[in-house]
Write a structure and sequence with these properties.
alpha/beta, Rossmann fold, 7-stranded parallel beta sheet, 6-stranded parallel beta sheet, 46% helix, 16% strand, globular
Length: 391
Amino acid sequence: MKILFLSSRIPYPPDRGDKVRTLVLLRKLASMGELHLVSLVDHKKDSDAINTIKKEFPHSYFVSHTRFQALINLARNVLRKLPFQVAYYQNAKLQSLIHNLSKEHRFDLVYTHLIRMVPYARIMRESKVILDYTDCISLEYSRSLGHLSGIKKLFFSIEAKRTAKYEERVANLFAENWAISPIDIQKLGLKDHHRSVVLPNQVFVAPLRDNVKLKMRLIFTGNMSVAHNIVAAQNVSKKIMPALLHDYPNLVFTIVGAAPAPDILALDGLNNTKVLGFVDDLYTELQNSDIFIAPLYFSAGIQNKALEAMACGIPVITTPNVAQSLDAHDEVELMIAEDNHAFVEKTAYLLEHQEARDQIGKSGRALVMKKYSPEAINLMIEERVNHIINS
């Protein structure tokens, strides 16, 4: 079987949720046939990643796509109805490369990551194509509007409508559509669509930690240049921590994640906040913490960060939208808080009750092992690919 893998971003290093997903799928699909990877890159920023990927996947093609090119694309798109995130990734060299590959090879399967790569996938008319929506992006845009103002709010209100129409319009183009959770399938309008299925993220399940003694340490992880992560970390540091420090003066809030934005770096030292940035061993940082706290008010899709904490047996406190995507239940596999006041109350409760921390941590870990472990997801990928190829 020959497989073409289309990605707008090189799937390495796995320092953000979309790269974690694509790297897992890349490796699994490569084990099922001859895989050819095609990806847009910034050769200056991605040089190390390119060398690493080339060693593991010899049939890799990288096309330069600079921020300058992307901004020109956005300017040209102002009077069009194409979503800006699709226009952003338009690249004539990439289009030419895929045309050539389609002539040189007969690909049995084409994996397409995100709607931004749809224009390129449409070239592969002779192949079975998977469109991986991952998240309902229009939903994330809509949820973000309450946290924006001015020109940003106007831009994303327009982009949310454009993206929603595009998501619906491309649903019938290909052999199968994948999304990360039932909520995303529903919001995409694909709940009853017979060629649309849920394919969750895979999460490594770490060995259980030995030391469950209270460490007075909260943690939040993720790519710290992403808007919903920045807002979440600011909420904890500026609004939730001051209330908790009144009763727990030794409590520390740790922020871990790649590419911390200036707004995140500014939190270091504020209200017992520590900004670590990228770390080599995320799971050690999680296991050295008591509670994963995630006020993600406008995120979409499954949040890998929450699953990673649950996989370590760490109790998670998060918002209803995150819990719903994970199919997790309040006070069973995690705790749900709808606002900052509830986050303070639930965090204080868990700090005071070790039995509750332990029980929620164990239940959360059991959910991950059942639905999101490498074994469960790899089996699901095999089943979907075999179904597509043989249908």
